[in-house]
Amino acid sequence: MNESALDGDDDYEESKPNLSPQIQPKTKKLFILNQNEIVLAELFRRPYSKQFLGFCLQRFEVGVWSSARGYNIDGALKCAMGNHKEKLLFVWVGLIPMVNAEKPLYMKELQKVWNLYDSIYSRSNTLMIDDKPYRALYNPAHLSIFTKSYDINDEEDNLFDPNGELCKYLEGVYKAEDVPRHIQHNPFGLPPITPSHPDWKYYKKVQNIGPSASVLWSFLGHSAEVIVTRSTHAYCYISSCA
């Protein structure tokens, strides 16, 4: 059964992690969530989302990279996260649309996040989860996992079950020394886009165009990306050179 995002926003508990000191990392790895279609669909949270978010916040620094429009993000965050949205490292609103492709594809370029947190996060300690494998085309390999979008009519959806496969997988990522090496040897979910994909010719062309030929998502008439960080709790506008 799905969860209404309007019921019990703030009532979930975070169980204490049962983790030995020797596996406690000095700096938490960065886990980037796609809020829309992964956590939230319409006004419903994915089943077990409260427990799942608590699990993630205990083990990772969690950021949200959302395709929601900037003026909708606060309401969407409240629905998805409740008061725990203040624990997020950042919320990034805006995707990179390709302008020279045959059809628009909206990308998430991790280098932009790494530039913002220089020397703290990199390809060795970052993991992104999304429902669209093509959004990772501009990123190094083995830094993303992909899962199906949340269908509110699927009453058997248990992706976020704290005893399910995703949480077990993330526990492995949490303990891993190197994120891409772990993902490479332990694939999860939907396959990434590789040369074996039936539409690889098209996606390869998109890769070759590269982010330098793209423009930023238009937000209220401005070419900008919008980010709110935990340290400021304020919106900043990041230029394409950020």
UniProtKB/TrEMBL annotation:
Location(s) in or outside the cell: Mitochondrion inner membrane
SUPFAM superfamilies registered for this protein in UniProt: HAD-like (SSF56784)
Quaternary state and interactors: Component of the TIM23 complex.
GO biological process, one term: protein transport
Compositional bias annotation for Acidic residues: 1-13
Pfam families for this protein: NIF
Protein name per UniProt: Mitochondrial import inner membrane translocase subunit TIM50
Keywords tagged on the record: Mitochondrion, Protein transport, Transit peptide, Translocation, Transport
The organism's place on the tree of life at top rank: Eukaryota
